[in-house]
Automatic annotation (TrEMBL):
It comes from Thermoactinomyces intermedius. Its EC number is 2.8.1.4. The gene is thiI. ATP binds at residues 183-184, 208-209, 265, 287, 296. Residues 60-165 form the THUMP domain. NCBIfam families: tRNA uracil 4-sulfurtransferase ThiI. Catalyzes the ATP-dependent transfer of a sulfur to tRNA to produce 4-thiouridine in position 8 of tRNAs, which functions as a near-UV photosensor. Also catalyzes the transfer of sulfur to the sulfur carrier protein ThiS, forming ThiS-thiocarboxylate. This is a step in the synthesis of thiazole, in the thiamine biosynthesis pathway. The sulfur is donated as persulfide by IscS. CDD domains: PPase_ThiI, THUMP_ThiI. Pathway: Cofactor biosynthesis; thiamine diphosphate biosynthesis. Keywords: ATP-binding, Cytoplasm, Nucleotide-binding, RNA-binding, Thiamine biosynthesis, Transferase, tRNA-binding. This is Probable tRNA sulfurtransferase. GO terms for molecular function: ATP binding; CCA tRNA nucleotidyltransferase activity; tRNA binding; tRNA-uracil-4 sulfurtransferase activity. It is found in: Cytoplasm. Belongs to the ThiI family. It catalyses: [ThiS sulfur-carrier protein]-C-terminal Gly-Gly-AMP + S-sulfanyl-L-cysteinyl-[cysteine desulfurase] + AH2 = [ThiS sulfur-carrier protein]-C-terminal-Gly-aminoethanethioate + L-cysteinyl-[cysteine desulfurase] + A + AMP + 2 H(+); [ThiI sulfur-carrier protein]-S-sulfanyl-L-cysteine + a uridine in tRNA + 2 reduced [2Fe-2S]-[ferredoxin] + ATP + H(+) = [ThiI sulfur-carrier protein]-L-cysteine + a 4-thiouridine in tRNA + 2 oxidized [2Fe-2S]-[ferredoxin] + AMP + diphosphate.
């Protein structure tokens, strides 16, 4: 008898009523979307559980795919059998025998979700424990700290037996919390911020400011690659690439050097707000933390933030660089982020950026620029690139 399905557990039990239904429907959709490249798989839902029938598909890649889905807390490779006591015993024996060397102690955790089934949960625990001890005499029962917990779930249609509960990503299913616009640079932080925003169930779009020819095509490709990696967790992601050269040149020509970063970032927020509104995103997301660089002091944030009235989410605000890097490695963006291509923020980097820029000074400086026209032109010339996960087609238009 071999494993033939994956049982998926999901969390956020606090959700109730209409929210819960929406959460479950979105989660099932996201799972179907994710595993559709494995044509044998069939995804079904029963109260409190989601199952993937494997139908001869390999386990590992499907489990890997599930480990990239927000909303799942447990991924359990299982044997599904008829609701027949003999079959359940056989499945339990198969699972335990398979793990012979590493397992010395075990316990059974049986659950009778279908009350029509004649054997109550406690009795299943005892009878199955006794059966396994007789068959595999080297084993012992340890109810407190066993090497393996064998789960048995008797549900309406089938019974499931499993001994592994691999951790899922947690969070909320992507799509239940509305749409946000991620300000995506080529650095380490913003892709992590995007990942953490996705974790709370948002649908992600991304915006990147590009200063060609000061920043190269390769720098742009790097950002496309980062967005593409995020599609593993977020599904389809639309990336807006905004031409930023003229704005930076104008700032450089007319404004105080020490204010150039502040003003540049105020432009970024204004343009991002326009694009967000046009495409129905409800908030902006950045990879800013506190205190890393000149533009990330509270005074600076206040002056920059005053350029927009939209909520700005900063999921990294409480994190150290080390923690951010750890996540970046885990989600596979790190290696791409550290490629040494220039970013528009570094091209025109002032020698001594103002760490506490004043709003009135920034506003006065901006009066020397044709702000409206610059923004309008940048928005109009924005390139849209649609990125899709895996081997799905990728296309772009202008
Ligand atoms: P990151 O590692 O994400 O580049 P950082 O530590 O380098 O962040 P900054 O350069 O101050 O910090 O940028 C702060 C945030 O501003 C970034 O996390 C990103 O959200 C946004 N940002 C910076 N440059 C760009 C850009 N060229 N396009 C879009 N967003 C940008
Ligand atoms: Mg950066």
């Amino acid at each position: 008898m071999k494993k033939n399905c994956i049982l998926l557990r999901y969390g956020e039990l606090a959700l109730k009523g209409k929210n819960k239904k929406e959460f479950e429907n979105q989660l099932v959709n996201n799972i179907r979307q994710k595993v559709k490249r494995f044509p044998g798989t069939v995804v079904t839902k029963s109260p409190g559980r989601i199952y993937i029938d494997l139908n001869e598909e390999y386990f590992e890649p499907v489990i890997q795919a599930c480990s990239e889905i927000f909303g799942l807390v447990g991924i359990c490779p299982a044997i599904r059998v008829e609701k027949d006591w003999e079959k359940i015993k056989e499945a339990a024996l198969a699972l335990l025998s398979e793990r012979k060397e590493r397992v010395q102690t075990f316990k059974i955790n049986a659950k009778r979700a279908d009350k029509q089934f004649p054997i109550p949960s406690q009795e299943m625990n005892h009878r199955l424990g006794g059966f396994l001890l007789a068959k595999l005499p080297h084993l012992k029962v340890d109810v407190h700290d066993p090497d393996l917990t064998l789960f048995v779930e008797v549900r309406k249609e089938h019974a499931y037996v499993y001994g592994e509960d691999l951790p899922g990503l947690g969070g909320l299913p992507v799509g239940v919390s509305g749409r946000v616009l991620l300000m995506l640079s080529g650095g380490i932080d913003s892709p992590v911020a995007g990942f953490l925003a996705l974790k709370r169930g948002v649908e992600l779009q991304a915006i990147h400011f590009h200063s060609y020819p000061y920043t190269s095509e390769r720098a742009k490709q790097k950002v496309i690659d980062l967005a593409k990696i995020l599609t593993r967790y977020g599904g389809h992601i639309r990336l807006y690439v905004v031409p930023f050269t003229e704005i930076q040149t104008e700032i450089n020509k007319h404004c105080y050097e020490s204010y150039s970063i502040t003003i540049m970032r105020r432009f970024m927020f204004r343009i991002a707000e326009q694009i967000a509104k046009k495409h129905k995103a409800l908030a902006l997301v950045t990879g800013e933390s506190l205190g890393q660089v000149a533009s990330q002091t509270l005074e600076s944030m206040q002056t920059i933030n005053a350029a927009t009235t939209m909520p700005v989410l900063r999921p990294l605000v409480g994190m150290d660089k080390q923690e951010i890097m750890t996540i970046s490695k885990r989600i596979d963006t790190y290696e791409t982020s550290i490629l040494p291509y220039e970013d528009c923020c570094t091209v025109f980097l002032p020698k001594a950026p103002k760490t506490k820029p004043h709003l009135d000074v920034a506003e006065r400086q901006e009066r020397l620029l044709d702000v409206e026209r610059l923004i309008q032109e940048a928005v109009e010339n924005t390139e849209i690139i649609d990125l899709r996960p895996e081997d799905e087609e990728e296309f772009s238009y202008f």
